[in-house]
């Protein structure tokens, strides 16, 4: 697969109008595009996703099937979330819950977290755990934007080192899009809920 054949999609877990998570993901996608990839922002504000209910078929759950198809079509997915109560956001969790191994299994995933305060370590850890349970391969390089209200000015990064870290994630999303992870994770063997979506 050449870099021009790579599709990178960013799943934005923030619904805020002036979302720092979305701004950071757009910078990441810009770097992926510069590296030759086709890019797409999956903005959850544009999808009707009811709270996940395992008794409801995905086809009958608003735009869940449409979103899952977009995730499936990507070679690399970058999950972006604000830190809420030490974890990632409920809109992102709902979106992921409507997906399974068909969408994430053996796929390259990047992680980006944003917080209003300190470095969002637990948000990144929790997203990594979910990806492991879905048997995705998570890029070792991850991006975090702490103190988000001071990190941007007029939609641009204030700190060039922070911008470089986010843009590096975009380049790695392209670079590692065709990696073949092996073996399956222990967690994925026990993730019955991700089968047969």
Automatic annotation (TrEMBL):
The Swiss-Prot or TrEMBL record lists the needed cofactor(s) as:
[4Fe-4S] cluster
Domain named NADPH-dependent FMN reductase-like: residues: 7-148
In its UniProt record, a GO molecular function of this protein is: FMN binding
Source taxon at top rank:
Archaea
The Gene Ontology CC terms held by the record are:
cytosol
Q: Identify its protein family.
A: Belongs to the SsuE family. Isf subfamily.
Concerning PANTHER family, the annotation shows: CHROMATE REDUCTASE, NAD(P)H-DEPENDENT FMN REDUCTASE LOT6
Name used for this protein in its record: NADPH-dependent FMN reductase
Species:
Natrinema versiforme JCM 10478
